[in-house]
Amino acid sequence: MTNIKTKIGKVELTNPILVASGTFGYGEESDEFIDLNQLGGIVTKSITVHPREGNPSPRIVETPSGMLNSIGLANIGVERYISEMLPKYTDLDTAVIMNIAGSSQEEYIDVMKRVESVSNNLTGYEINISCPNVGKDGMEFGVDCDLTFQLTSELRQLTEKLLIIKLSPNVTDIAAIAQSAEAAGADAVSAINTVVGMSINPVTRKSNVYTKLCGLSGPAIKPVGVASVYQISQSISIPVIGIGGIITGEDVVEYLLAGASAVQVGTANYRHPAAGLSILDEFIDFCEKNNISDLTELIADLQDDS
Ligand code: RRO
After folding, report:
1. How sure is the predictor about 85, in pLDDT bands with cuts at 50, 70 and 90?
2. Whose CA is nearest to atom 9 of ligand 1?
3. Is 69 in the pocket of ligand 1 (CB under 6 A)?
């Protein structure tokens, strides 16, 4: 049997498959379709200080091998997250990671302070500095090394829990942003958030999504995700969590070979909320068929031609 445990910072995950923020609600919606405890972890939907309705519809459209979204950070706000969601996580036996978003440094800090001030059993935080759909503000951190450094440093001072910075592919040099997160004390980075995309109806000449520009996810972006993980993992020493278009066990292997220590399954959850577990089964099968005794054998083990 392959040892599929993996470490992110101080935290050991029972397996490398997590579900990605924004594709799995707050975790509790899917518990009748899937045994959540079999996942390596759950990353919950982005939370802001105040509740948000999100963008007007249409806000999701299918594309070849993927989908576009412009949800616009619809969420229940931190106070309801604390009172309604955190208590539900106390019975779970898997890592629960809270994703936080904001439009200013103060907002991220405010959310984290409120959560840190109550007793909870969260494993850690994923900081969303990469939302493509809320105007310029949400992206400012993710495209700027200094802002990433400042925000990460501030948040590092507020928590001893796992601190993961989620990166945007919509930048010139994703590895440089990852280096800033590492220098400021992040435990890990996750990559990638969605790729900016657009879809137009040729007959009506209108955008198929209300905001016009939106975020592309699914298998269409897997090569972008794998390349980003590769570039990042060559540049930093903290773990990288790979995200983007994972739908099979072999996709997981690909991300690990590029340098990821774990992965998040996103768009595949829309096909079936238990996608993460079938991907996990396929991953285990692959490891056993290929005589891999420990998952760490795969991490960053990309071979050269010669
Ligand atoms: O809510 C969204 O529109 C959204 C977010 Br916060 C994000 O991080 N990535 C994305 O594709 N959509």
Report:
1. very high
2. 131
3. yes
Is the model's pLDDT at 171 over the cut of 80? yes
The rounded radius of gyration (Å) of the Cα atoms in the chain is 18
| Interval between CA 210 and ligand 1 midpoint (Å) | 14
**Ligand 1 mean position, distance from CA 286 (Å):** 32
Kindly list the catalytic residues: 131
pLDDT, one tens digit per residue, over 261-276 is 999 999 999 999 999 9
Distances (CA, A) of 241 to 77, 172, 192: 26, 20, 9
User: Where do the structural domains in the chain lie, given as residue ranges?
Assistant: 6-54+71-195+217-297
Tell me the backbone φ, ψ of residue 202, rounded to 5 degrees: -65, -25
The pTM (predicted TM-score) of the whole model is 0.97
Selection from 181, 190, 196, 112 nearest residue 145 by Cα? 181
Q: Which one of 3.20.20.70, 3.40.980.10, 3.30.70.3040, 3.30.70.260 gives the CATH number of domain 6-54+71-195+217-297?
A: 3.20.20.70
